[in-house]
Amino acid sequence: MSGSLNKVMLIGNLGADPEIRRLNSGDPVVNMRIATSETWRDANGDRQERTEWHSVVIFNENLAKVAEQYLKKGMKVFLEGKHQTRKWQDQHGADRYSTEVVLQKSRGELVMLGQNGSGRPPGPTGQDDYGTQSGRDRSETRGAGAVGGGSRELDDEIPF
User: Fold this and answer.
1) CATH, residue 69
2) Domain annotation covers residue 118
3) What pLDDT shows up at residue 157?
């Protein structure tokens, strides 16, 4: 259909460490869950919150490497992919459906956002210990390439 668009952009937190597996071809596949939340005040002035969980599948080899090496439970990420529903059968032969955000081999974007709002991923202690001076505000990975992040130390550790 001409004039349609299938594009999903999310900013949220990882609910668990990414799960990495390999296809028979050796290509990596990453599965992860992202939580997005919205808050508002109801008519009584009480704070309300709603959290949505999104299943994400990464088929892009470069993004899979980044997810495997750097993403951890609780990290804030931005991602961009396509909304897809797949059909499968459970152990009893019943049809099941899964709706996922998919980052394809040649498409998709994944950006690690700092948990402290600095734009840099947290250090090994969960805090931003990469230093405070940066020419870039975020570590980002797009499609088949990537741009390093917050400091010389971080740039030396990222293999792209």
Assistant:
1) 2.40.50.140
2) no
3) 53
